[in-house]
From TrEMBL:
It comes from Pseudogemmobacter lacusdianii. It is found in: Periplasm. This is ABC transporter substrate-binding protein. Residues 77-446 form the Solute-binding protein family domain. Belongs to the bacterial solute-binding protein 5 family. It comes from the Bacteria. Coiled coil: none annotated.
Amino acid sequence: MKHWLASTALALCLATPTLAQDYTPDPNAKAGGDIIITYKDDVATLDPAIGYDWQNWSMIKSLFDGLMDYVPGTTTLRPGLAESYTLSEDGLVYTFKLRAGVKFHNGREMTAEDVKYSLDRVVNPETQSPGAGFFGSIAGFEAAGPEGLSGVKVIDPLTVEITLSRPDATFLHVMALNFSYVVAKEAVEEHGADFGKNPVGTGAYSLAEWTIGQRLVFQKNPDFWTPGVPYLDSITVEVGQEPVVALLRLQNGEVDVPGDGIPPAKFVEVMGDPDQAARVVEGGQLHTGYITMNVTQAPFDKVEVRKAVNMALNKDRIVQIINGRAVPANQPLPPSMPGYAADYKGYAYDPEGAKALLAEAGYADGFETELYVMNTDPNPRIAQAIQQDLAAIGITASLQNLAQANVIEAGGAGTAPMIWSGGMGWIADFPDPSNFYGPILGCAGAAEGGWNWSKYCNEALDAEAIKADSFKDPNDPARLAMWSEIYVKIMEDAPWAPVFNEQRYTMKSPRMGGDDALYVDPVSIPINYDYVYVTE
């Protein structure tokens, strides 16, 4: 990524408002048509400042835009609402030139004031955004309140200047995150807490209908600023659909993409049928599935207990439950992520050693606890396997099988002693090791409503994380070595029990067109709706 960032900063200043430099329209694409996507659970919110789960990620991505974006189906940065930017020699001041004539769904033209309002809104404590911590390098973050970020300034209607308190190797990725997306102030003020049900952005689609518990309908934005896309007229998302039923409907030609993927119980059957296997799309992902332990609550306030949980897990057996679609994990970072500590071995499966650690912590007779789990298959079955492994060392864990939104709520509130993250397991927001720290292991993420469900806060590691990100080059070997060391130290504290790193599998109907990478898009999880189309 260093070459792109270094070589294009100046070139972007001379760029035209088209995206010809990074996207060539698919010559086979046909405009028009509607597709049907299914999910088991309803969508929690479409507010980009709040929404932070894999299910609503791609929907929010199609409703809103940020200053930066990614080339479809890749992790390569490209300009978004900002057609160009410059960076000062000291790496502290970014000046973004906005595209002229970009319109919100309500018809009003977007300006630099909207960019500032949107960034200020995310860091305002009243918003309770789980993404506020991403903006920690912007000047004024520590003192940010309702008055906003002092480091974000409007220069003129089409120019925004953002000053950092330190160089930040991840900053342009942050400007491509959902949390940075630009919202219409008047719509937020009109709907208040219900803005997430009444979103107004600049994206390729606008929300036409939301019948709670039944469906959401997204319609094509005729004023979208990227010529030629989106291709589809509308997208209907049907919720309350069991994954097995969704698969049957796909087989009957009634559904185009089952949003929850291939039901694990049907995976072998699907892959064994050539006609169905031909419609399967497989993609790598920067993913880790893990168990959180709330370090602020007994008995998980003792590191020996947390290490014992790590040693109790038979990860090879758990991987078999999902038909081998993963590899056992020994640290927060997945193996394909820069900064992965290749020499680190983690905690070996050792039930007897785990029992000894429990006795050392004063729990020789074990204890009772609760394990929260998302109620979509295979997660309850995985949780049962974890439950059995814990029982073997004397820990009795009752399972709390809940809808995704309820598990997320309990995690953010700190009321769940343990959570199996499956279905919500961390998939990187962007391909950088820092992304597995701040939101889910850093002190900022441990705040009320945050995604650090272990409530682990190590201020010394927070300081090391800041040093690791204070590089201009995100791929500096010294920086990546620092991140490796940070994650090894985290595993010494064991707030998590990493379980596996999973591959993504999904299916599409025969009429769906577009590159397969769009259906397992690494940053528009799970689907990049803006660039898919139908062939009939």
